[in-house]
Description:
Region (Disordered): 157-210
Organism: Pseudoneurospora amorphoporcata
Shape: globular
Distance between the termini: 44 Å
Protein name: DUF6604 domain-containing protein
Helix content: 40-55%
InterPro entries: DUF6604 (IPR046539), UCP028035 (IPR016864)
Strand order of the largest sheet: 9-14-13
Domain DUF6604: 11-285
Number of helices: 39
Amino acid sequence: MTFKLYPNFAYKRDIGPLVYWVLQTSNALIRSLPSSYTDVPQVPLDKPQITLQSLVSLSKLIGKHVDKEHIPKTVLALLQSVIESITASHATFQRLATKKPHPDVENGSASLETFVVALRESALALHGWEILLHPYNLSDYLFSCYPLTKEKLDCMGSEKKKPQQAGPLVGHQRRQVKPGKGKRGRRRKDSEAEKSKATETEEGPPEDVFRKEPLESFGVTLGPDGVTTDYIMAVYDLFRGHFDLRAYLQDVWYEVAYDGLNIAVAGALSNAAIVVAQRSEDKLLAGFSDDKKSYHSVMSTMSSVFRFDAEAEGTEANKGDAHLADAKEMFLVHAYHDLLDFVTDYRKNGNGKPTKRMMKEVKHWNPDFDLRRATMEERLKWRRLYTIHWLYHLVGEFTSRLLVVAAVLHKKVPDSIKAKEAQKEEQRQRLLGLDGFAALIKKLTYEDSDLKNRKQILPHHVFQLQCIVDSLAVTKGWTFDLLKGHVLIEPPDADKFRPMRDVNRFLLDIGDERAGFLKGFVDLRHKLMVEGAGRPATDNYAQIQEILKSARVIYNQFVGKPPIQGDKPQSHTIGPNVLWNYSPFLCGVGLAEALDFQFTSIMHVWEQHQEPVILMHLYNMLLREGYLDKPIDFFESLQQLFASGCFPNGIVPISDYGNVLADSLRLLDNRKRNTGGMLRAPSGSRVAYRLAIAHESFLVLLRDNGWNLFHLSHNEVPLSSLFAKFMIALTTPVYDQDTGKKHLDETILVVRARLALSNEDVLGDRAEEKLLAMADALEELNSMEKQQAKDSAPKVVFKTPNDFSASEWLDLMKVDIMADIDGDRPLCGLNLARLTCHIFDIFQDIEDDLYALGCKGYLDMCGDDGEYDRKIFTRTSARRILFVGAMDVKDEQILRVAARTLAHSAGSLSEYIYWDKLKFGAAERSSPETDGHGETATDASSCTLEEEEKVHMDECEVVKGVVLDNGTVWIRTNDDETTTDASSFTLKRFKEENVHRDECVVIKGVALDDGTVWVRK
């Protein structure tokens, strides 16, 4: 799976497999022809790179001897993809050549035109005239074939052959060569040739000359201008990708500042976008020399093509030419030169402080400068000074941490101990969320050569710096749009947004009314120390204490307290903690990492102190067996959020509760011992650990996979996520020839979804119908969109999900990240340390009541002080024995005391949320150019759990309809303009019964899982 590729990206992906198949098929075909056959192209067949003429000649040879039906569909799809890519690149070069044409562009345009003609000729030769005369989309089919390998290409069309015979089919498909009037002796020679070939067959197949050649090495050479043309194509596509991602992230930061989007969501999306930029860079620039991969090289190429002076930053060059000024903005030239200016100035002093000349400029930077009333030059200067000022603070912070590590290395201890301690301290001193980038900038300041620096700065480094700068600019009302240019709007009110807004909620909670992140960790650490006092040492006790203590380091980073004071350049004009207070980007990525830390740390605690798992099983039994009169919302929510970690395979038991609990705890113990998961070493911590307990945090899963959406394991991705549902909807339907029924292909997610449905007693055909409905809904939505596009603009082509751009995949990811942080599944938004303390208190209350009642089952495990015997038990091990036994034999006294305690001790889960409210449903994107708001008949979208204006259920009515992902629902109306039950009106029924959208009213509310939605009356 991948995102929509730009032309050169798709070309690089598909040209290799195409050329490999042509060469392998040609080699096999020539070996099968009589030796007297003379109509064989005289081209080298042992090199992975071929010329255009060779591609055409070999295609004609294959087409002459292989029937149309035996040309693999994948090959035609590859050919179509390459033709489309080169055609698109040619169109780009033609556009570039219309304005101040550059010789390289003109030569490239001519070269690409020749390439397109040759590819079309090859398509005709391979019986692919249909893809030229009547273009049809083979991208979906090609998408299902990825990733293409040599083995897949070798076996195309040979599925019926034995494995050892697999290879390009050229035998029975080959057309018979018509006999001619050859010279006498021809038959003898042919006979000898056949004998020779028979001998070769007996000796085994001929050696594969391309055995050691990677698939990426195959391609087509474009002549003397080919390398330059290919490089221009690659660089142009690289910057197109950068601009699309930048525009998307600007919209995201707009949502943060103006619409209240949690800044951690923006941080996670920024990390993912930078990974996309780096992956694109690696693929697009693969095959070029290292000196061609630096930002300076790609910038020089674009400045040459667009004819602007990229080296003349801060001069009168290009002044007055808005087109060229916007080109410099598009290609991130300003950010690059600001970085170079900082590095140059930093090296001059060598003490971490700006030079006198730079200090005169920087000290006048005003964060409240009104950008709307400034000239373009003033805005660029304001942004430049901010960049340099902030980079000084970044390097100062990073340097202070390096000094702590250096101090460890100077200790008078054995080298082995010193190295180990230094490694731990280095991990502890990592800069939260931005350590890698800070290390790069610090490294650049060490170099004494501008040339070396330029070679080390890669395009994705400049893109990351641009994202950092944009995060502040957007929140000050300044964005850049390719069509509209520089867009300036009024900044948000200071009481509505500041970079530390969500960070402060995380650190201190809401107005200090509740304990925040740090106090939760401190309280939990103290509670574990008290519970473990005088008892047998537990596994990993010291490790868990160290992890909990690390919360202090993370807290200090956010509030601007470095390990060593005095090494940062302090600002006397804009206040303290410049690094965080003036960088929404750092606050976002830092908070995302901190949320990941607090979630995984507490899950690691749960692996050792298993009371939360015991409590979930205990509550489940008490409810199902009637000890509780009704469900308790607090425990119901916990059970739903942590089912995968507390119950085997996430299945909540309905009987045999004691044995299931015992099995769950044994399974968790085994996973702790045998886990092969990723070794986690979070910032601020001196220890590393592997997380054994299962969880459904999308944010944590993303970070574990390097923020790469396309690396997510389908074995781990939460089934509740939109991503999982979307991938299930994309699964290919399969028809059973015996029954004629349709079902989804057996992918990992489909198998998991079937198992989950079976746990809900949705079995057989009902389960399959539910899964197929997801795919059908997507298909019907596609059909409706196609029809709407056709009615409004016949030339519009509807994009399939396979054509999603990187920003559209990020938008899909955004829904699940929001749900995880402050949405309807806020696993990372819970103050889990405080929650865990509360769970321990519940058990203590149960035990106090059991002691007061003189419960024999409890007292048998206690010492004289009424506590579990300190010489034998840890509290967790004692509770395991007590409650597994009580649940197994149904000890009435223990279970009734537990039920009474749970009924009285449960609060609201919202008390443990870091934020002031939760957000339900997928929020619509908005931007400075579009407000993202549409008219609705009824709007109850504000009816979230934690609103200042409390909305009771009695104030709402419940309706049914077709619920969409954006939180709206279509409801059919009658003549009296009242809503009716339209739950049966799927998109398909709407079409079958000719229900037009004009007959429906679109409303907003709080959508529930059962398809209903609460709407305010």
